[in-house]
């Protein structure tokens, strides 16, 4: 009888241990101790009138239980977000907030963004694990102040202009806007960090009466704009008619045979791809390659005019006619200059080589940056004498003229770009234009030319 009771107690003990083990097996995952993770999609240092914030909160254990976001400034506190059911059980929540500090009663100055998150763990007597993260931010809802130091600015259609101005917040982004086109400004005077300049263009294809204004945006996203006193001198460009035939189109296509898509079978289809699609692709690549620049002006007086007689001008419109019908159009965005075959091509000013390689219709091409968004392009070269990253001096030979790309005769295609936009090259080698449109701007503002410091 005693042996039977012992066996029964043993069975009960085993059952108890099994139940305890099963309970522990079930409960243990619910007691995980890994707290939620909190991160901002992008760093946040300033809050403007209206700021957007993307918050990422994750929990790889039992999932999220709640998320709360509060903006605190001295005795003022405003809850921006308090979510429970929306994030319940989620391993990751991406939350987007629009923050308008003034509507919350906040003032200019320092504030703290407090982000709290809890998970569904059974730890801490079912309260779970919790994470609190604080981000120090500056409430700034006041837009920067702009002031122009330039009087009336004259600019030609397809030409360039220069604005000199001040921005009271030195770390603001700034520049000139022409219609929807944005030009980036520079800060080349270290002793006067609030004084800026911006070269801008009135593109040859822009319609009349484009609004031209200064713009600035501070780190909090507050924006300011100020109309510029600009007079645009309108000019018409000439139109050339080029008659096409199969022999001409096949000759052009042969140069790009390895690039033309296989579905372009006819001579016309091949020519249209080169003259339109490839041209557009090349111009977009030139735009990007010419934009990296320096804060200082690396050129002086004028750009040196390349050797050669003019063969085609900037802005020339070209109509391509086949069987008395216009089948394609293009705009010539530079100056064609012909000297002698394989003539030395020299840098028109000191600069940095940003590109030195094939560029489709422009053939072998060199792009030089001369500072403050000004760049020059040398196309159709038969030989390159520099490589990307080289520093070059005014008058240094950078290549030899040729007939690569879409050129049908040996010549140099020379372009000037301002912040990636093609402009009239002849302006830049004209001392009168430089005097009236560049040097006068510095004189009006009482500033020296923004040349590099000694040794740079």
Describe this structure as you would to a colleague.
Helix 3 crosses helix 4 (267-290). This protein has helices at residues 2-27, 123-126, 246-254, 267-290, 425-428, 431-445; strands at 37-40, 46-47, 51-58, 64-73, 76-83, 92-99, 109-119, 130-139, 146-148, 153-156, 160-167, 173-178, 181-184, 195-201, 212-217, 223-227, 230-233, 239-243, 309-312, 317-322, 325-331, 335-338, 344-346, 351-358, 364-369, 374-381, 383-384, 391-392, 397-400, 412-418, 421-423. Strand 24 and strand 25 form a beta hairpin. Residues 22-31 have low confidence and may be disordered. With 456 residues, it is α+β, with helices and mostly antiparallel strands. It has three domains: 35-139, Sandwich (Immunoglobulin-like), CATH 2.60.40.10; 146-233, Immunoglobulins (Immunoglobulin-like), CATH 2.60.40.10; 239-422, Glucose Permease (Domain IIA), CATH 2.70.70. The termini are far apart. Strands 19, 22, 24, 25, 26, 28, 30 and 31 form an eight-stranded antiparallel beta sheet that branches. Strands 2-8-7-4-5 form a five-stranded mixed beta sheet, with no helix packed on it. Strands 13-12-15-16 form a four-stranded antiparallel beta sheet, with no helix packed on it. The chain has six helices and 31 strands.
